[in-house]
């Protein structure tokens, strides 16, 4: 049997009218309109399907709650942009976006030598008062700002880092210029609300949801990078495969990774 088609009109029957309209709008958002497209206004939807505006609000509100639609104050309601899965392996943002068929772009906001905070100095195994490279970059895909990265880099392993073009894949640069291949990382993920500076860079409202990743990457046991990335929560999600194993209990134990 083929898939049951979604009705294109609303009829009297056992299924509530708001649920019928919700199904119609879901098909519109998932199959017909590209991400970021406006949907008809409440008045237009009410007239087109001969329902009340209360019914329209109920249907639209459910799809907003599901993340298929998004409201923009003063502008209307739009189909939501598709969320990208954060990859749980050690790969550069540039390579990741290219594999998805998207065009990556990086804006270097700053690169300076500075005293790292104690947490970064410890992660990079630096002695007290030793300076490191602090790099801040804005990452885009197809022109859309996705993430702000603020990282610290070990000057003993990547000396004169700021003399290079840092708007391309940093992992490729480190491998090609310094002969250093990052082969291991530990990553921690948490949720956070966007502060004013990060929100402005990402083109979102202050207080919007962010996914935050702190990654400490190394090469042959030598720490090279301590990077924290703030990703837009409306455009990113994390998917993990979970097996019923106990870490360290045998050859099939799950291993941690990073994007």
UniProtKB/TrEMBL annotation:
Pfam families per UniProt: GntR, UTRA
Superkingdom field: Bacteria
Family matches, as InterPro entries: Bact_HTH_transcr_reg, Chorismate_lyase_/UTRA_dom_sf, Tscrpt_reg_HTH_GntR, UTRA, WH-like_DNA-bd_sf, WH_DNA-bd_sf
Protein name, per record: GntR family transcriptional regulator
Keyword annotations of the record: DNA-binding, Transcription, Transcription regulation
One GO-annotated biological process of the protein: negative regulation of DNA-templated transcription
Key word Transcription present: yes
Residue span(s) of domain HTH gntR-type: 15-82
GO MF terms held by the record: DNA binding; DNA-binding transcription factor activity
């Amino acid at each position: 049997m083929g898939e049951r088609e979604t009705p294109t009109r609303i009829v009297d029957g056992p299924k509530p009218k708001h649920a019928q309209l919700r199904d119609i709008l879901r098909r519109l958002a998932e199959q017909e309109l590209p991400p970021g497209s406006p949907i008809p206004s409440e008045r237009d939807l009410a007239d087109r399907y001969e329902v009340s505006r209360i019914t329209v609000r109920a249907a639209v509100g459910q799809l907003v709650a599901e993340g298929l639609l998004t409201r923009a104050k003063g502008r209307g309601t739009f189909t939501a942009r598709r969320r990208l899965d954060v990859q749980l392996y050690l790969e550069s943002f540039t390579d990741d976006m290219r594999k998805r068929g998207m065009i990556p772009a990086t804006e270097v906001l700053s690169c300076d030598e500075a005293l790292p905070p104690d947490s970064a100095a410890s992660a990079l195994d630096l002695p007290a008062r030793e300076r490191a490279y602090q790099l801040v970059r804005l990452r885009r895909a197809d022109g859309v700002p996705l993430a702000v990265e603020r990282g610290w880099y070990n000057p003993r392993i990547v000396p004169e880092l700021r003399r290079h073009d840092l708007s391309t894949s940093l992992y490729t640069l480190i491998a090609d210029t310094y002969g250093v291949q990052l082969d291991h990382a530990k990553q921690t993920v948490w949720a956070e609300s966007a502060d004013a500076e990060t929100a402005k860079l990402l083109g979102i409202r202050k207080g919007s949801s962010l996914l935050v990743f702190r990654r400490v990457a190394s090469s042959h046991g030598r720490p090279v990078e301590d990077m924290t990335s703030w990703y837009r929560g409306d455009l990113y999600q994390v998917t993990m495969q979970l097996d019923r194993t106990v870490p360290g209990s045998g050859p099939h134990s799950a291993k941690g990774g990073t994007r």
